Amino acid sequence: MLLVSAAGTVVAGVSEIRVALAFGALIAVGEAVRVTLPGDREQAPISDAGALAYALLGPLRGLPTGHGVLQVVAVSGAAGLLGLGLNTLRGRAPDPDVLARRIITICFAAVCFQPLYNSGALDRLATHGAQYGLVLAAVAALAALCDVVLAAVLHRARTGRRFGPALRDELRALLGIGTAIGATGLVISLGAGEIGLWALPVFSAPLALTQLSFRRHSATWDTHRQSVASLARATEVAGYTLPGHTRRVAALSRAIGRRLGMGERELLLLESAALMHDIGQLSLVEPVPGGATALLPAAEQRRIARLGSEVIRQAGVPPEVADCVRRQAEPYRCPDGSRDPGLPAASRIIRAANAYDDLCDDRGLARRLEVLEQLRLDTAREYDPRVVEALAQVSAGCRGQRTGR
């Protein structure tokens, strides 16, 4: 698509080259200063807003423009590649999928708007300024939905996660910085019609400040994750759990949560709780053999979980994490056979993942299948059947990757 657009633009000649260079510079700079949000979600707000504004650009300082769909795609794509190159020089690995998604989204927006504008049909449809603004807002909203669907498809292809939960996560993200991106792109295109290219720096400034706030939030979250990881290793360093146990349980829990359709925020909280699920063992006078809490009496498991929760609360982590750790030792069903509706899904997942890792050993596939069957038999009381089945699917997938299937 990018090559075809570039070739078409060269053949037809670049229209308003000064305007193209200005928008290209904004897109390239925005790509170079992209930010990674919690959940490893990459965003280039300034670049996205600049590309959207160029796709929706009609008159410039009261004068009509003549660039079309091909030039919008060519300029956005070339500037994005330049920004990726700058990121590479800074030692940051580029993600071409994100750029490809933006190009498709911008192409969609340009196809919706540019033919209407260049043919004069938009002037006949939107005879007043308010109507023109509504048309731009509608196209921007459609482009945002297109981007959400593409992002969910990419997320599903990368992680194997179900499309529905991935789409819900992307829609939630759209309500955050995605709304700011769309609004800024819309304002730049409208502002350029009145004040010209000065609209680019003037109306990009608020979004730049917003991006700075998101960057600080992301840095804070990274620090939090590092603190959680360091705290989680305390049980291994002290010899209470086997090396790698907490990381395996966290990875397994996250995979199960993704299989069950958890949202990104839920997965992040689940991962934190799983990393710290054994912190309560530090209160023991003598370590549990092999750190296998799944083999302890139920009362002792609950005591360790409660003590771990108290330690976690003092560490300043979200209260949901401490609650998940406290309730991880509670069985899925009450003594009367009923389910406890207040038992967090994360606690049920950690309970099954921890038992699986505690009970498996180095005897290979046969032992793992035996443990899974034991967990299935215990679903009458101890474990959530849906969690155990998801665990079995995740375990089968991991075995398939190891054997090359």
Please explain how this structure is put together.
With 405 residues, this protein is mainly alpha-helical. It folds into two domains: 2-216, no CATH class; 233-403, Hypothetical protein af1432, CATH 1.10.3210.10. Helix content is 71%, strand content 1%. It contains 17 helices and two strands. The chain has a two-stranded antiparallel sheet with strand order 1-2. Strand 1 (35-37) and strand 2 (41-43) form a beta hairpin. Helix 11 (245-259) crosses helix 17. Residues 400-405 have low confidence and may be disordered.
Provide keyphrases for this structure.
405 residues, two-stranded antiparallel sheet, 17 helices, mainly alpha, Hypothetical protein af1432
**Percent range of helical residues:** over 70%
* Inertia-based shape: elongated
Provide the domain count.
2
Which radius of gyration do the C-alpha atoms yield? 26 Å
Short account of what is shown:
This protein is an all-alpha fold.
Itemize the secondary structure elements and their pairings.
Elements: H1 2-12, H2 17-32, E1 35-37, E2 41-43, H3 45-55, H4 69-89, H5 96-118, H6 121-125, H7 129-159, H8 163-195, H9 199-232, H10 234-237, H11 245-259, H12 264-275, H13 298-314, H14 319-326, H15 345-359, H16 365-377, H17 385-403
Antiparallel strand pairs: 1-2
